[in-house]
Amino acid sequence: MSNQRTGDDAAPERIIRRKLSDLVFERLHAMIGTELKPGDTLPSERDLMERFGVGRPAIREALQSLQNKGLITIAHGERSRVNVFSTDLAVEQMNEVARLLLSVEPSNLEYLKEARRLFETGVVRLAARNATPDDIADLTALVDEQAGHRGDAPAFVAADMRFHTRIAAMSGNPIIETVSEAMLRWLFEYHHALLHWSGAEDVTLAEHRRVVDLVAAHDEEGAAGAMRDHLDRSSALYVHHP
Question: Alpha-carbon distance 75 to 21, whole Å?
Fold first, then answer.
């Protein structure tokens, strides 16, 4: 006698009950970008309660979820407003996740350094292609500024970030500039290397000046090679601190 279960004996598909606030969130999310544009105010809580036929707790929980995702801003005593979306806002939403990834799993730091190496060698090629006299003047001034911060590790590192971000800005692509700044922030803020810069300032400055010279000469491959050498050498400066 066969023990195989027939279709009638199969376990029924389980129906999962969903929270009202999740359903409200989906409705409001769909409204953003269709009915509601960046800068628009959302309907009042009472209007939303009447529109969706739910209570105030479901509305407030859905609005809080939208704010947590960076889609709206909730201000006390005022109606919620749809945020103006930008690359900066998108990266800001990633910052907390990046911090947790780097803190919980230190090996992710190596992945970040590898990603930065690939990213910046490509970016500096664009900088060399697009460089104007004003760009070169700015980069030279940033290296000079950084040189003035020898012995002041926080200021030296801040100038280092501005140098690399300025190179990214030469791409003419705001997404590239924002991502570059974000990766640098994750490296410096969450894996402090400040104590490890002592004695390396002059080497760093010489490498930066070489990159500037090659970018000024519109030598894309040379600039990429110099940036790669610079990042490979400085990679050891970034270490995990629990």
Answer: 20
